Request: fold
Amino acid sequence: MRVVVLAVAALLAVHVADAAEPASLTRARTLYNAADYDGAIAAAALARTQTPGGDAAALVEARARLERFRRNADPEDLIAARDALNTIRASALAGRDQVDFLVGLGQSLYLTDFFGAAADLFDTALERSAPLPDHDRMLLLDWWATAVDREAQVAPSERRARLAAQITTRMEDELRRDPGSAPPMRRTPVQCRPCARFHAAPGHCVRARASGDPVRVPAFPPAHAAHARR
Reply:
């Protein structure tokens, strides 16, 4: 899986020419940002038939379906989201959309319990997070830490300790970089009991899906229209 992450990162390194965004894609983004995922999916489906913007539209549709899956736990949404992600040419995306693509891939893996691979993708997204506002970057950091935490819950004790140390070290680094960073100040130590309830941050309780319920994790905001064009 690490090879896949590196391959995606290599594709994202390709320069993308700026292009005008179709109105249907702008509408899809607006509906996504308003949490109207049904509307966003419909608008993105239309935008996917148009050029330029088809790959960005597939990304909006995929992330809308991931959010709808988290809301309703309909497996068809998760399948459709993964199918949409698989059609995207990473090199055709603009800067902010490239980061969101990595986040979408990471979310799709997280929601199918591939926590280690998801953490790798979130880590790569963090390395490319310059286009993100600080608040959005902190939420992405929390996605990463939560994925590492979930992996640690079922890891052998020696690996569990290494994963816990990764979280601690990174959070301390974030505090040095920005003493006002919310997730580093709020995150509690790793709790590694399988299916345990723990708080990734105040108000966000993450639970192992022993019952098949949708996982509730801190939401990463979508790319706003203002970020769509570099």
Remarks:
- Confidence is low (pLDDT under 50) at residues 12-18, 184-230.
- The chain is about 65% helix and 5% strand.
